[in-house]
Fold these 4 entries.
Entry 1:
Amino acid sequence: MDIQTWTFILVGLSFALYIGVAIWSRAGSTKDFYVAGGGVSPFANGLATAADWMSAASFISMAGAISFLGYDGSVYLMGWTGGYVLLALLLAPYLRKFGKFTIPDFVGDRYESSTARVVAVVCAIFVSFTYVSGQMQGVGIVLSRFLEVDATTGVLIGMGIVFFYAVLGGMKGITYTQVAQYCVLIFAYLVPAIFLAIQMVGTPIPQLGLGASLADGTPLLDKLNGLHAELGFASYTGGSRATVDVLFITAALMVGTAGLPHVIVRFYTVPKVRDARRSVGWALLFIALLYTAAPAVAAFARTNLLQTVSDQPYESMPEWFTKWETTGLVVFDDLNGDGRIQYTGPDAAVANELEVHKDIMVLANPEIAGLPSWVVGLVAAGGLAAALSTAAGLLLVVSTAVSHDLLKRTFRPSISEKGELLAARISAGVAVCIAGYFGINPPGFVAEVVAFAFGLAASSFFPVLLMGIFSKRMNRAGAISGMLVGISFTAGYILWFKFLHPELSTPENWWFGISPEGIGTMGMLLNFLVAGVVHQLAPPPSPAIQQLVEDIRVPKGSGPAHEIEA
Amino acid sequence: MPDATPPEDSPRRHALDRPPAGGLSAEKRAEYWRRNLRLVLSLLVVWAGVSFGCGILLHDWLDQWHMPGSGFPLGFWFAQQGAMLVFIAIVFFYAWRMNKLDREFGAEED
């Protein structure tokens, strides 16, 4: 069977599985819809969180990015996992004890302020839409490349699937579908990785393969460093970014991860505080299973690519090369007219003639390595699972923000349970359509807005939650002024360098050499500083609030989430 | 900071309709919280040590050695795999230790 038939079969089977799970677990109440009734086991919640977290970016782009960045790509590995330590130690158990449905719930109640609640809602919606349009685009890329339907049809199919289980099932449907999606995506990621590891270094464990030796006895990483030096690229294991920038980007990604609304809400779905603690551990373990394999896949792909194309005649390129050329993700320009491909780095004497987009590394890897066609189809199904599971989680945050935080808690407190559930479903439906629109007509700045999402989460949500839990003295004035300063500083810096003056975005112009990707860390520090000073000038919060803070610090007395509706 | 007395009238929030902090005495709560903070801080030191320390600041220096029996330069290994493995250990250790502390103080959920 050819690649396309395999892809149809595997993608079709996986979609049928998701729909089956969604029908079996549809939501009957707002608690089912928002937090899956609060009855998900920590293990299942860990699986669901991992699928929710690992997006098209993790599945499709991350290994590719590491492949081109080498050591510098470590910021994603440490940043996107280190955040879970902060989540487990500083946020998840306390927010679970607090026991409401959303971040805006906590912010609004803890600081007794509708303004703070609305600011949090707006941030949550912005961050979620930023992310979700990237997912829909990922769905479009995968479907159009492997099924050869056009990208628009691809996005429409994806929208249909997400609509079905997010709108019907709410958090309950999403959670159990995500468990299935995790299994599909991790299998799809590891199978080609294992094949590659056996092929290149003779070990079936890709994580260990990264440190293993090639058939001729040279360690893989030494071989790669040698190839890089020869072709004028920066050392693969050494990297080329300034240390201070690596530090700030890693910290911003960690803190941003811990502050992302669609991740935090997952820990409201487990029955007890101790489950929340353990659940973060499971989530991190399942995420790390893919994240420790990614650098191995990156190094295998890099070595394969360099050996396949470097200084080879263009005429002898394999089929995958010309196939990806038609998508514009591989571009060859024979500058010196010798008919061979000179693929070189910035330090080489010969001009570079080849551009390879990072997103194709994972998708094209099985073809580059000549793996069987069912593996290629499997990768397509895995990429779709990653994109759809993340999209669904984000859409739920948007619909909860609208129906619960805005309608129920701010504008129409009298709304009935049935009315709220209907509003949640309608807003999820509308959100799917808007996300689909952005997937079909992607704004040219998806990559830039992702820096925005993490920057905003790092400079606003994380500090405001942390101070709300760990300081009884922190009050409305401190929290709001901190958030405003943190957000405006971070947003201003990113807007300046990413949108208004992208030509100035070079290390010489950055403050202290910190790139816009890492500035969220600075925004967070400013937030803490301003809040720390301002809160001293205003009276402490009311005794009821201090009591609330005392209460969330001790697990005892937490009810199941569905019994503590206000 | 002195502990706030629970308000007499029934407040609007659910948390206050129940006995505060599961009915633990103020001294017990303070001690429980102090032990929690000490554990959290020590684990955060480890967290920062393996990532910001070994993975970033000491990366170049550590790269002069290899992981025994493999081709991993040590600093590079911390940055791309080692830090993550330690993160997992930290989270599970915290969950285990805190769940034990909860029982010790009678602070666990029923």
Note: Chain B is about 60% helix and 0% strand.
Entry 2:
Amino acid sequence: MYSTNYHRASSVDEAVALIAKGSDAKFLAGGHTLLPVMKQRLAAPGDLVDIAKIPALIGIEASGDTLTIKAATTYYDIMHNADVKRMIPAIAHLTSVLGDPAVRYRGTIGGSVATNDPAADYPAAILALNATVKTNKREIPADQFFKGLFMTALEDNEMITAISFPVPEKAGYAKMRNPASRFALTGVFVAKLKSGEIRAAATGASQDGVMRVPVIEDALKANWSASALDGIKVSDDGLIEDIHGTSDYRANLIKVMAQRAVQAAG
Amino acid sequence: MSKVSLTVNGKLVTADVEDRTLLVHLLRDHLGLTGTHVGCDTSQCGCCVVHIDGRAVKSCTTLVGQVDGADITTIEGISKGDELHPMQAAFRDNHGLQCGYCTPGMIMSAIDIVHRYGGNLDEETVRHELEGNICRCTGYHNIVKSVLDAASRMNVAQAAE
């Protein structure tokens, strides 16, 4: 990788100040997306600000109908957390099929969400559960956060501090994994919120990254069951077509994964 | 350049290295601990797995700054003198290695798996948990046998303590 300067921040304020002062600076949490990209010389931040050990960014809080996961909490700690398993088991499941054990020890939810890789898993959960992305400056609703491939609503010097999930009535996640990279070839998160709203989000499928799937939401609104999706057809417009699968294949995967997600949700 | 201090296999180590230095390069190039391997450039193969504060992670995807102050154990640090770690002994007895390139990472990941699961390991779990370690000889069958064998040896050893 190209030369860089490493800084370890001990507070959110210090981290943001270091970023503002750095040259093309980037936040570093688990580093399991950023460092591989830097090794390939596709990114060359002059300064890295390590936020993984900031106490205010680590931990999980359950209060009433809200589950808040702080940004630098690792996948390992999320999937084994009793509140996560009790309140939104679909998130524990999603985390358990993300990466591999060594990756799960280091990767963080904030890192995944800030990167917004088009095949990352957490963006699907955030969009389907209508979660709120909290930053050092404001709170951003899920529908306004994801802006396309690797793009988010985050501004310069803005850092995700936590994600707040409303506890749903039911939720499920199903994913067809690329066997080599373990990224989602297509993953679908479905949720029936306590407000009655039904939301479904697909990752790994669209050229624009995570997206809601209205045709699935409409069918589930009429009848929350896997069989309600038997007759639907998901359009392959704008879906990814690559060596792993055609856009048509992914369109069908969205439907099949949605059915499995509904079954998992019960 | 930055000065980092960390504990490697029980010894305190201090090094003056460029900030871009990866932990695996500190171990191999600066400390001469070449048992930890680099098998890919994409953080997928697991040949470089070491324990950082007791957790099996990829040293090729960790900057030295991130482990300043940490406690590292590599494949060189798990035996007691000439007495192999039960995981190493099980790999030898079960022919758990062919070319051997992936073996250090396999062993470091496998020890972590046994620590997490204790006596509740079965074949399916071991195969699933080893998903982050790739063997290009495709010798997984005996690797899985080795891990299961070691798990019973380690649990017996623990019970005896």
Note: Chain B has a mean pLDDT of 95.
Entry 3:
Amino acid sequence: MTLRIRGLSAGYPARPVLDGLDLDVARGELVVLLGPNGCGKTTLLRAITGVLPARAAAIILDGQDLAAMKPRRLARRVATVAQASALPERFTAFECVLMGRTPHLSLFQSEGSRDVAAVRAAMERTGCWDLRDRLADELSGGERQRVVIARALAQEPRLLLLDEPTSHLDLQHQVETFRLVLDLCRDQDLAALAVVHDVTLAATFADRVALMSGGRILACGPPAQVLREDLLRDVYGVAVRILAHPVTGRPIAVPETVHLAAPDIAWLERIADPDAVLEDSPGREPHPAVPLPDVAQPPPAVRLPVQANKGVPR
Amino acid sequence: MQLAPARTVRIAAAPGRAPLVLTWRRMLPSYALAAGLTCLVALVAIGWGTVRISPLTTLAILLDHLPLVSTGEHAPTYDAIVWQVRAPRVILAGMVGATLAFSGAAYQGVFRNPLAEPYLLGVAAGASVGATLIIVSPLFITAGLLSPLPPAAFAGALIAVGLAYMLARTGPVVPATSLILAGVAVSSVGTSVVTYLMLEYNTRTLAILNWILGGFNTASWTDAGIALPYMLVAIVVILPYARILNVMQLDEDQARQLGVDTERTKLIILGAASLATAAAVAVSGLIGFVGLVVPHGVRMMYGPDYRRVLPLSAFFGASFLIIADLIARTIDPTFEVPIGVITALVGAPFFLFLLRRQQRYGGARI
């Protein structure tokens, strides 16, 4: 076992977020934290790195207590990839990855050939060695995230924490990022703990999924066991259907479709018409609550007006 | 025959070759160049004035004052002009310029804010209050060796910064934004106190204004001796943090996750920079623009790495203020222009020139 968390309570002075949380992450394993906004996923990551002081906890990594470690020592063991990490202006990608060597250098040391070798290995491993002379602030979102992952690797950590690493990336980069993280777990024997919002993405790549709610972990296990319709509805408060991936058989979560009721179609068509006099409309809510349709008999599909947004008063 | 189009090309590393890492040793040539330039500027400035003395003669006279060195006989008037009048003035201007620019670079690095400058946390306002209180009090002695003005200004500056730091503190952390706001608040209080005292003691208004505008016309070796230790302490303490300041250009969370103790780093760098700035202000008054513009100029010319920005800011800040002081004392023989007027008048257009040049080259390093 690599990471072992027991009885972790943490939060902000006015609002405790985590309440006696237990979690284990093994070496070579990718564990994904799922849960609604505000359930404490990011707080958990911040408590592990010590950015947010934990109140009562045992956070043990390879037999050593992380909470008692100085920041520099901890950064040699734990690396974080945040969502859309900002990179400083006018530094090259190489220099940004080189910053990952910070915890290995004392105040009076400069980077040496060992550090350059580690940076090169990390950048080649993440496929961004060709970007080394580019300015970091001119990189695309996907390129930047690879640079940030390379920087995390350059720390030579044993535990990789990822906080919504793909939330600003397109589908291709989402898949590539997680493929990369999973490969890193396997061949560098890293333990990885990732916060993800996309349930399907989590199910596709995670070895185990930890479903969080209200500062606790409700269920933790292989995606197929944890991602159940009843559990997800309880946690997220919406009706969700679980399908099976046609190739891998892993779970796919889709929200139950919400169809528009007939009066709303009329309203949409009306505002789509640039000549419509909107003052004439009866004072109705722009986004009416729509009752969920009877699932057994889905209503007929309706063709939405293409220019539905045109003419909406701003 | 066709000539290749002339244009600047960034030299990319050969495929597979790693880019060079900036280490202190690799940057020594640029430091040596900047140091040499600063010495040359100082030499010319010492020789320049109503009595012109050639740089070589100036150098000979200066060397003659070093222990164990003799460069022959020199005219006593020249010796007095160089050693008693101009050398302390030019050297003090250089030291103050170096301190302000160096501290400005450090402040900008800690706050990740291009508008940060060494007066941000209330150094200027605090020093003004200290100096003004002395000027309006019966203690006021016009000038001289035992003038209580520098210590009072120094104490006022440190009290103001300490106050801003304590006001911004929330538990174990001092958020950068709170620190800036606390500095602004402390500065406003200081400014209003000075304004009140100026109006209340209207016979001393001119003396207060004179101090605030700053300058080096009363510079002595004593002033230089007062400021030197603080300047050296700041440089020795802050320079090792240059690499950490690069990492601090990431947001604070990322820097912390890379093992940087951000709170301690902030406290050490701001403390040392404020101490040196307070000493510089105490001996020269408030001279604006140096701490803001010089680090930006260095960054635009040499890139963002603080291992370059910090030392080169010190050298170029020294040259800049020596030249500004030279202009201030020579442009009109009957009247000395306040140096702050010169720094703004020369600094702002130069800054705009650099800014436009940088935009034209698409932000590339020059």
Note: The longest strand of chain A covers residues 15-25.
Entry 4:
Amino acid sequence: MVLIGLLLACADAGPSAAGDRVPAAVATLLQTVDARPATAWPEAADVALASTLSGLGQHAQPVDVAPLIPLRDVDQRFERLPESGPAWLVVATARSEREVLGRFRWTIHVHAIRRDAAVTSTSFDVPVHLDRFSDDADEALVAAMPTVERRLLRWVRSSTPSELEADAP
Amino acid sequence: MIPWLAVLASAGEFGAGGYMRVMARPDWMGGNGRLGHWNLYGRLMNEGPYAVLDLRYDVLPPEPGSDAPTSSLHARIEGGAVGGAEPTLGNLAGLRLSQLDVEAGRVAGRDWTFRFGTLDFEFGELGLYDMRPASLMVGTVGGAATWRRGDTEVRLGVGDAGFALHGLAYDAVPTAGLAFRAALGDHVEIGGGAEGLIQPGVPGNVYAPYQTPGMAYEDWIRGTVVSSFVAENPALAEMFPDPSPRDAMSGGVVAYLGFGDVGPLRWSATYASYRRVHPTLRSVEATDDGDVDLYVTAFTDDRTRLVVGHESRLGFGIVEVAVGGLFGDDRDGDNQIAPTDHDRIYGSGVVRTQVALRPTVALLVETSLAREWSRNGAMWREHADSIFASTDGLPDADGLEMGDTDTRDTWQGKGGFVLQPLGPGLWSRPSLRLLYGVQQSNVNVAFGNGFVETVDANDAFGNVEIHTHHLVALEAEAWF
């Protein structure tokens, strides 16, 4: 029983809700490494990102991404977002990799730009392993979201600790 | 090395991924740290450490929004050498460069990809067993063309499996394989394929397939071919017959069916394969005058192997269940007299249940039941004082059977706690596990061990009778 208690005590209880939140314009794009045009994120991934922003004291307000899709440059895309208030552009690039021991490996490359007091950006890779041949970029992104959320949280908290600590639960 | 790889991965043109598992299973009962002999009883606690490092370098990286040609180099290093977790203490000789190839995409149409190098192809995995029955062209080096449009893929490959089959005794084994897979809507996937290998007899090539004429199968099994020849031909003892060349062939077919996303059924996969195993070309018989090479292609060219495996994964809120089954039928058409691993039937069922106690803590319970049956008679010993060489269950110094039973029944139960930093899920990794396992078998000491098996009055250690094996484990497993 002591061991069980220790394990439960060590477990991450997960984020809890914050109080009043600041509206933030959010645009999310998912692209693959071929000629197919970028698309909006699947709903499950958008919901996960909104939850992450909620933990940061922001309320996600989705932006229509259709005008952003023809643009290739991430900075140009970001310039199309509303010019006032916090704004986020998160572009995920999904790439199908070599199967490893029967699992279908994908790499999700995330490039995020956000504007609070200033404009900052980050990028990172998240690997996921799926068990279906026909799983596509949408499924790969959804599978990557738990890690994507954590990486974004860590990025924001490490770059503006004082502002966020005030909003954090 | 890992930080270095991480830097390369973030550079954009390099990528690294892979898999690892490492564990400590101190076995106070005298075993080697594995609950049972093999993963027919479920992979959990029956496997040793293993690591895979998969490396990619993009010569021409693929780009979003572009159908320009791409090219990448792939290398895979894998093996079971891990310092402190196995006998070689992580000696790098236990690792191998198992795959190395170059892929070129969209160079002859947007749907085509060409791969030159190693051609291993897998349809998927039975996660509960760590088995991939539907694999093709494993170890074959050559060229393959893949056509993929949407969720339909066809692959054709040709190459040479000579080194994979024969190593230092290399002889060319031209190989051809074909595979396809497709998704039928959102709930069904199908796949299938075949491969064929032929090793032509080449007179004069010492590594080509031959058969030593005049041998009796039973003499070969007993290791008495030379002595029988001398006994029958006392005047021709120096005239042991030369081998004659013959072709060796092997191959197989595989099939795959996936189904899921219906109610609590998240996904299920069934794999089947039927193979004619490539013949063993030679064996060595020790005689008073030295070793004699025997060429045995005709004695080993009728071995077949059928494997059917299934796995389903179901979710009920915080409870996830994986159910698996495996059936195998190995036959050796040349051998009707001696029990071997080439003449057996085996089957098992595994059920793993995982309950998410917290988002990152789970309770895991797994059970398995297995039966292995030797088609050619007794193969195992049920007790510490069981007979060794036997015939029809009776002691027989000249018997070809072993022990007193042709059936091995095994039950295993495992349970413990799992830490999953990335959240709940049966296959969520990394996974840190604290497990207890128990095995019950009708066979005595049915696990790798350091016990003395001989019944010798001068044996200083004595014999033991163990049918129930307990084991605890601290394990870590990750995909990255």
Note: The radius of gyration of chain A is 17 Å.
